[in-house]
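for the writeup, i need someone to sanity check this before i put it in the appendix. the sequnce is what the collaborator sent (i think, or maybe the updated version? ugh). structure was predicted straight from it, no edits. if anything looks off just tell me and ill rerun, i have time this weekend
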Amino acid sequence: MTEENQTEVEVKKQEKDPKLLKQDHDFVVPGDKIVTSIEYLPGRNCFRDGESVYSKRLGIVSVENHVLSVVPLAGVYNPMMGDMIIGEVEDVHTSGWFINIDTPNSAYLPLSGVRGFIRSGTDLAKIYNVGDLIYAKVISCTRQGISVSMQDPRARKLFGGKVLNISPVKVPRLIGRQGSMISLIKRKTGCNVIVGQNGVVWIQGEKDTLVTEVVNKIDREAHIEGLTDRVEKFLEANLPKGFVPKEEPKNEFDAPSEGNYENKGDDSDAY
């Protein structure tokens, strides 16, 4: 067994702690006590009362590094600072862009959120135009609205590919513990896959149709234990025998190179 496969096996295994009243992947309803111990911290959709941690939502328990979370079975996207999302430019203004991120109100990308210098008078549509897809970071969530930024090294404009939507609450299952699920899909198919916390998924590659089927399968079966094994078998059954990806999928954490955004002139090669 290779070191990479050994790591995957270790990731899949989750040792049971007798202190836990609800184990990893157990079903819980709001108010269910998951543990009575200060050794565990409440994560998403959990809260602490005294020494105990309880569930806020109907869903599946997730235990990782002594942090307890609940993956809801259904729900809408609730933006949080630090989330990486995929959005579509829906309007260009003089001071920035409005981005559809599948929330009731559009997010806003200000000029200060773009890498590089933008000279006054620049046509902002030459940078991001209506219909463009971007992978951006949520930097502010207030009553006044949501702001996103392209300053994060992972942020980029997305070209080509296909886009599909899954339930935002199923995103943790698509990514997998320590990225195990999404790494499996990318490695087996050779496709580039970027997952937004808002449930928008971007896929590019020769086997994009198969990846679409796999993503939809995960969306449907996220609550069922043994999902990683089923996905791996599904991929093996649907890939040609001996299939080897033509090229390694790109790492979405690699920073793209971007120049300054200025008006082109005799002394500038940028926008």
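The chain has five helices and 16 strands. Residues 77 and 103 are 7 Å apart (CA to CA).
thx in advance!!
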